[in-house]
Design a protein that fits this description.
Blueprint: H1 2-16, H2 26-37, H3 41-53, H4 59-65, H5 68-71, H6 74-77, H7 83-95, H8 97-107, H9 111-122, E1 131-132, H10 133-143, H11 148-165, E2 173-174, H12 187-193, H13 208-221, E3 235-240, E4 257-258, H14 259-265, E5 267-269, E6 278-285, E7 290-295, H15 297-302, H16 309-327
Antiparallel strand pairs: 1-2, 3-5, 3-7, 4-6, 6-7
Helix pairs in contact: 2-11, 7-9, 7-16, 8-13, 9-13, 9-16, 10-11, 11-12
Protein name: Lytic murein transglycosylase B
Domain Transglycosylase SLT: 29-319
Keywords: Signal
């Protein structure tokens, strides 16, 4: 026990004593803030002070590299679609009905899909992360072996967000990757796409009302070529009627076929589709066997939120289960 306590104290001491202000990447960060975002000398000094205080948390890099979307099969990952999340989705849709209706009217995004995002990300705003965003983005930005460029950009956007919102960068808390609020927006998306949906003068994604509108805005405006299509579904179940060609694309990033081409390849949808419908094939490895889905344009719009097939399928199936419960007759 003494050895364990000593080890923990050593780890804490190493993390607490980290001083990122002297890191070789800091001059470029500060130059970006000054040249591209107009930081004054006083604001640059505040950034340096925050970097002195930032803690190095190397376990976050491992957590990002071994995210469940990358390491689990579908049987494991799909356990997130549980009864509590389904009921939570029903509850929030009923409690915030006016905001979901407004988001659907303005952006065309289905309320159950917005709820599905919030359910998978944060259990409807209940679990938004308890790691300082400063620490997660500094660690990922300065120490990640392969994604330094991305996280350094997000660290810069985080400092801009804090300056513009009048927030001490040592205060906000989020995920191991620096995502914030009930919608889990990264800082760049927070700055570009967050909305003040409750009209209180603040774009606060820790409130579910602002998160609802901001998710809908994200799906519409994040990537114009993959913008949400009003009234279209995400995916439908399918099955294979004979062994599939090895070169048939599975789990891609966009629609790659027409419905007719998939049917010719051996994939039959559970409901008939117009032959020229653009689709993609989703193959889910289970503990035993394989499950197939046919994905539409909006499925890949969800993948712009998180580019992992399992993530988009979890949102898809959770939203379907929520809708089923909403449509079920009362007991």
């Amino acid at each position: 026990m003494k050895r364990l306590v000593a080890g923990l104290l050593l780890c804490f001491s190493a993390a607490a004593s980290a001083d990122y202000s002297e890191h070789a990447g800091v001059p470029q960060l500060l130059n970006t803030l000054k040249q591209e975002h107009g930081f004054s000398d006083a604001e640059i000094a505040n950034v340096r002070l925050a970097l002195v205080d930032a803690q190095r948390l190397p376990q976050l890099v491992e957590q990002e590299k071994n995210a469940p979307e990358r390491t689990e099969n579908w049987s494991q990952y799909s356990r997130r679609i549980d009864a509590a999340r389904i009921q939570g989705g029903v509850n929030i849709l009923q409690e915030q009905a006016a905001y979901f209706a407004r988001a659907e009217e303005e952006f065309g995004v289905s309320p159950v899909v917005i709820a599905g995002i919030m359910g998978v990300e944060t259990r409807y705003g209940r679990i938004t992360g308890k790691i300082r965003v400063l620490d997660s983005l500094a660690t990922q930005g300065f120490d990640h072996p392969t994604r330094t460029r991305f996280f350094m950009s997000e660290l810069a956007h985080f400092f801009v967000y804090c300056r513009d919102a009048g927030i001490d960068p040592r205060i906000p808390q989020g995920s191991y990757a620096g995502a914030m609020g009930a919608a889990q927006f990264m800082p760049s998306n927070y700055r570009r796409l967050a909305l003040d949906y409750d009209g209180n003068g603040s774009k606060d994604l820790w409130t579910v009302q602002d998160a609802i509108g901001s998710i809908a805005n994200y799906f519409t405006n994040f990537r114009p070529t993959q913008s949400w299509r009003r009234g279209e579904p995400l995916a439908i179940r399918a099955h294979a009627v004979f062994p599939l060609p090895e070169n048939l694309e599975r789990n891609g990033k966009a629609t790659a076929y027409t419905a007719a081409e998939l049917i010719k390849a051996g994939i039959v949808p559970e409901v008939p589709l117009p032959p020229n419908t653009p689709v993609g094939l989703i193959e889910l490895q289970l503990d035993q066997g394989v499950e197939y889905w046919i994905a539409f344009h909006n499925f890949y719009t969800v993948m712009t939120y998180n580019p992992r097939t399992f993530y988009a399928m979890a949102v898809t199936q959770l939203s379907l289960r929520i809708q089923q419960q909403l449509d079920a007759p009362p007991p």
